[in-house]
Amino acid sequence: MRVSVIGSGYVGLVTGMGFVKLGNEVIFVDVDERKIEMINKAQPPIYEEGLEELMREFRGKYRATKDYREAILNSDVTFIAVGTPSREDGSIDLTYIEQASREIGRALREKDDYHVVVVKSTVLPGTTENVVKPIIEKESGKKAFKDFGLAMNPEFLREGVALKDFLNPDRIVIGVLDERTREVLGELYAPIDAPKLFTDIKTAEMIKYASNAFLATKISFANEIGNICKRLGIDSWKVFEGVGLDHRISPYFFRTGIGWGGSCFPKDVKALIRKAEEIGENPIILKAVVEVNERQPLKLIELLRRHVPELRGKTIGVLGLAFKPDTDDVRETRAYVIIKKLLEAGARVVAYDPKAMGNFKRFYPDVGDRIEYAKSGEEVLGRSDAILIVTEWREFEELDYSGKIVIDGRRVRKAEKTAKTYEGVCW
Ligand SMILES: NC(=O)c1ccc[n+]([C@@H]2O[C@H](COP(=O)([O-])OP(=O)(O)OC[C@H]3O[C@@H](n4cnc5c(N)ncnc54)[C@H](O)[C@@H]3O)[C@@H](O)[C@H]2O)c1
Ligand SMILES: O=c1ccn([C@@H]2O[C@H](COP(=O)(O)OP(=O)(O)O[C@H]3O[C@H](CO)[C@@H](O)[C@H](O)[C@H]3O)[C@@H](O)[C@H]2O)c(=O)[nH]1
């Protein structure tokens, strides 16, 4: 099938390349010229394992452009994968979704064939039918479900293992209302062996929020128990090993530490809270989930002060800047909050991350410009009075921590075994 993907970021690029691997032809659209140029040279603008190899292998089966018209006229189905960030008050910002819908609508005006538009971005229930649909109808002069198809197909991939997740998902959720669209998406996803759940459109939108909210809740719950464990001298990882053996609970997403960051959980939980309040609900669990998560990285500083009471003038090493390992993404990384606190306390910070140092400096100039970047984890260890572990990159398991003070937010076993002084956040 001929597929176009609007927005070539973490989701758009991975999804599009996934469709290429499944035998489709893909046209990527983006407003960012740098990304377009890189994609056309078969270079991924983001770091994601396996992506570069896939882009090299399938060169010629995909291309990128700024031109919506070209992309829509030369494809049968279009996925919208633009960002849906938070506004200042936590509510969802639909600016990019609205822009993309307008451009798609304008291009569809010139097209006679039945074209299917699929919202893949995470959007609140009602957005596809109440925002995307009327914009496309107005700009195209056509009617949804009659002249063009419309669906919502949330994405559940995790960064770092995104391609694997896209090609081997736990499930595929497809929100559709018309039979033709259902057939097109059924055919497109046919090669993927996973349970396929067809729902109406707003249910598909809600499944995405409920999933992310539950996963964030699971981690905040684990961290709350973990904080109690720490005071009682109990290893919360052992506790959750025991808890997770109950098949009703499952062992996953119980890694206690400094909490969740990233481009999804923070913004999606907040957007759901705002939406709930707007419609007269008070989501007390979700609010507590966010509060626990905001306090959690501060535990690392609290523990550090037990061993280094005066931070002024001290050099503190930070291992890891990405919000999780195997990605260069720094959106809502715990490293930002932690480094900000260190600088406020007058410490010097020397940091290292295998992939995310450039992004950290660009995204957070207020702290990113005030710290030093090391060339390796060894250099951080060599130059610091104490070390904080913020992201559990595999290579941090290879470092020599002997003689060091290490405060660990993610549980790097080598540090736990070999550091002179070691503290874990919840263990
Ligand atoms: N990152 C993830 O792991 C993940 C997983 C599942 C779902 N999601 C959801 O997918 C959506 C995209 O997330 P992302 O992380 O890929 O974002 P991203 O910021 O990495 O990518 C979005 C891309 O859209 C482009 N863009 C913005 N406006 C545009 C427009 N009008 N026309 C064309 N391109 C435009 C941007 O230049 C950017 O390249 C969000 O709704 C997010 O919640 C993300
Ligand atoms: O037991 C755990 C698991 C994760 N985390 C943290 O939680 C955050 C998110 O991790 P993860 O879920 O692995 O990464 P994402 O790429 O943000 O993926 C989440 O967000 C995506 C965007 O919506 C969804 O598609 C995925 O299903 C969902 O897992 C990171 O800061 C992790 O360090 C923990 O603290 N403990």
Automatic annotation (TrEMBL):
Question: Which positions in this protein are listed as binding substrate?
Answer: 156-159, 208, 253-257, 261, 324
Matching entries from InterPro entries are given as:
6-PGluconate_DH-like_C_sf, NAD(P)-bd_dom_sf, UDP-Glc/GDP-Man, UDP-Glc/GDP-Man_DH_C, UDP-Glc/GDP-Man_DH_C_sf, UDP-Glc/GDP-Man_DH_dimer, UDP-Glc/GDP-Man_DH_N, UDPglc_DH_bac
Domain UDP-glucose/GDP-mannose dehydrogenase C-terminal positions: 317-415
Its top-level enzyme class, in one word, is: oxidoreductase
Entry EC number(s): 1.1.1.22
Keyword annotations from UniProtKB, A to Z: NAD, Oxidoreductase
Q: What is the recorded name of this protein?
A: UDP-glucose 6-dehydrogenase
Which species is listed as the source? Thermococcus nautili
Reaction catalyzed? UDP-alpha-D-glucose + 2 NAD(+) + H2O = UDP-alpha-D-glucuronate + 2 NADH + 3 H(+)
Active site as annotated = 264
Q: NCBIfam families given for it?
A: NDP-sugDHase (TIGR03026)
User: What does the entry list as the binding residues for NAD(+)?
Assistant: 30, 35, 84, 122, 159, 267, 331
Read off the PANTHER family from this record. UDP-GLUCOSE 6-DEHYDROGENASE TUAD
Q: Give GO BP annotations, semicolon-separated.
A: polysaccharide biosynthetic process; UDP-glucuronate biosynthetic process
Q: Which Gene Ontology molecular function entries are recorded, alphabetically? A: NAD binding; UDP-glucose 6-dehydrogenase activity
Q: What pathway is this protein a component of?
A: Nucleotide-sugar biosynthesis; UDP-alpha-D-glucuronate biosynthesis; UDP-alpha-D-glucuronate from UDP-alpha-D-glucose: step 1/1
State the similarity comment.
Belongs to the UDP-glucose/GDP-mannose dehydrogenase family.
